[in-house]
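Quick note —
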Amino acid sequence: MNRTERLAAITLLLLARRRVTAAEIARTFEISERTVYRDLDALGQGGLPLISQAGAGGGYELPADYRLMPLTLTPDEAIALWTALQAVGSRDHPMREAARGAWLRIQAALPQELRDHVVDVGAGVDVSRMLPDAQVPATVFATAVRALRERRQLRIWYHVPTTGHSTERTVDLYGLACVRGRWYAPAHCHLRGGLRSFRLDRVTRAELLTSSYTLPRTFDLAAWVRGLFDYEQRAEERLPIEVHFSPQAGRRVVDDRFFREGLERQADGSFKATLTIPVSDLDWYAEIVVGYAGQARVVSPPVLRERVAMLARGLLEVHEAPAGAGGGDTSSTPPSP
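Predicted structure written out below.
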């Protein structure tokens, strides 16, 4: 946080705890005690009625009657806010500092009785597993949030582990979604010329540009999440599949949302995709494999391989030249004498 944000947070800390030492403030905000003293001096010059208590048990405090207007919340509402903000602020979440600052503001405005109630209940609530598993660099997340808020284009450096390559792209960010422990960002990718889905933990760097963009009115983030992930959540029979892709298909398949989550690069430069799909999606996956025009081969299960072969035979029949139309076998039989 910058200094202005830190001064506001120190004020809220004083309101929440009433008396704190310079050492406690330094530990809370990960700054030196010298910086703490400069900040407290600035707050005093700004009109905050700080009281300094020397000696053992001393510290800095505000007058007992100095308070913000009480925040009207029910106990359940206060606990709900505390739970959500603690989940974000208790581990290495990209919005950890913002969450901590928000809770300090809320805590300072709560009536003392409700504040004590939250602290008591909070001691028996574990929120450590509510966070995403994949860590996103804080600077990347903050830049993405700002780009979304200000509708400004992003330049990102996107790393694909299966290939080991990174690409530089300019994107128009359409939203952020945390699904199954990972942060995803739907965006218009100017390199690919269309809507793409990016995993934020694979963005190694993000740079905010001055150019702006307009979010399409037809884009629905909730619908995008359902379309991208619901097929994995259906309560129906599922089937493991394995598909191999040639090295020539690599550039396409690493950007293919239907295979990339289970993709593994092989020593010879080819790719192997292993994933589990709903049985009802077999025909859909067969069509996708056929679309790779011979650069993809189904290893298992046999039922998927058979459906690919059936589609391929159908394509061959459709594209065979009719008898006598030419364009087929150009060899000729000598006429009879």
